[in-house]
Amino acid sequence: MKVDGSLYDARLEQIGETAAAHEAAGYDGLFLGESSHDPFLPLAVAVEVTSQLTLGTGIAVAFPRSPMHLANLGHDLQVASGGRFVLGLGSQIRPHIEKRFSTTWSHPAPRMRELVEAVRAVWRCWNEGEQLSFRGDFYTLTLMTPFFVPAPSASGPPPIMVAAVGGRMAEVAGEVADGVFVHAFTTERYLRERTLPALGRGLSRGGRDPASLTVCLSVFVAAGNTESEIAAGVEAVRGQIAFYGSTPAYRPVLDLHGWGSLQDELNTMSKQGRWGEMAGLITEDVLDAFCVTGTPEHAGAEIVRRFGGIVDRVSFYTLGLVDPFRWAPVAAAIREATTPAPPRNH
User: Fold this and answer.
1) Which residues contact 238 (CB under 8 A, 6 or more apart)?
2) Is 93 exposed, middle or buried, given 0-12, 13-18 or 19+ CB atoms closer than 10 A?
3) Cα-flanking dihedrals φ and ψ of residue 32, to 5°?
4) What letters, b where the CB count within 10 A reaches 16 and e where it falls short, cover 103-123?
């Protein structure tokens, strides 16, 4: 199981130092989310200060961008990084697409499938000389003159990852993507009973080998060496669980556990602006289902117990630019538990 850093507030002036620190701390990758900052520009800085880290968007909001925008960004970062880039895409939810980005929302799962295929069509044009002739229900790309064709990527195109919570998007990820980002607002039960079967249906539909799909999971973690450190982490996680739980798109996770009424309460409070009170509704059983708590060693072992064998890469859900060395003991515990022992000499 590989361990990645994950940032949701990647400020440009700090990303160089932070990316270098993640590499020094032994992380396998660093993925940047799209919240208050663009996720692509900081990665151009991270490329220059790292040599081993996998670097990617985790995730970039897909639908406000055209396939050509994404193809350009992905191609350039893949070339600049020497083949270390991953294009991670997510759909976001309708209110953000329409009211924050002022773009069109429609049929998110079929649209995501077509978007991935359109981006790959552009890359085949640039890397293999294939004529650009993509015609779909949502995107049409048929013009590519030599002036706009970059040099081919010596490393080939980057992999494309798709973020999925619901079953339909998980099926799309299994059918056409190189990997899936499983949102932190999930549980072991939901992953095993809903997400993995949906991925399997997509893989079957696409005629693909399950080994071709990388499963990446972000995990809520409240770890520390003292009770006060753990308690502070728990309170922060309660707030995040409440935030996501208020969104109808995430309700299926709660419904599976019989907590659907919690979503109703959280949604009502969010509309009333009572954000500060919402964390108080997250009971211990809800917290335990979503979050791993304890010492770094215990947290690492618990992540492996819950997700070992079904997840290829794991990251810790944190907000802002954090000290990666704080989480290094958790990462070390995961590696120790999942790295095969060397063969004995007889």
Assistant:
1) 279, 280, 282, 287
2) middle
3) -110, 130
4) eebeebbebbbbbbebbbbbb
Three-state DSSP state, 288: helix
- Check residue 346 and give its pLDDT: 46
**Do the Cβ atoms of 5 and 314 come closer than 8 Å?**
no
- Report the distance separating Cα 323 and Cα 25, nearest Å: 10
For residue 49, the surrounding DSSP H or E stretch is helix 40-49
Mean pLDDT of 105-126: 97
Tally of CB atoms within 10 A around 231: 13
Q: 263-310 pLDDT, tens per residue?
A: 999 999 999 999 999 999 999 999 999 999 999 889 999 999 999 999
Could you give the CA distance from residue 214 to residue 4 in angstroms, rounded to a whole number? Answer: 13
Give residue-wise pLDDT tens across range 10-20.
Answer: 889 999 999 99
CB 154 within 8 A of CB 126: no
Distance between CA 315 and CA 332 in Å, rounded? 13
The vertex-108 CA angle with 102 and 111, nearest 5°, equals 95
Angle CA 301–304–305, to nearest 5 = 85
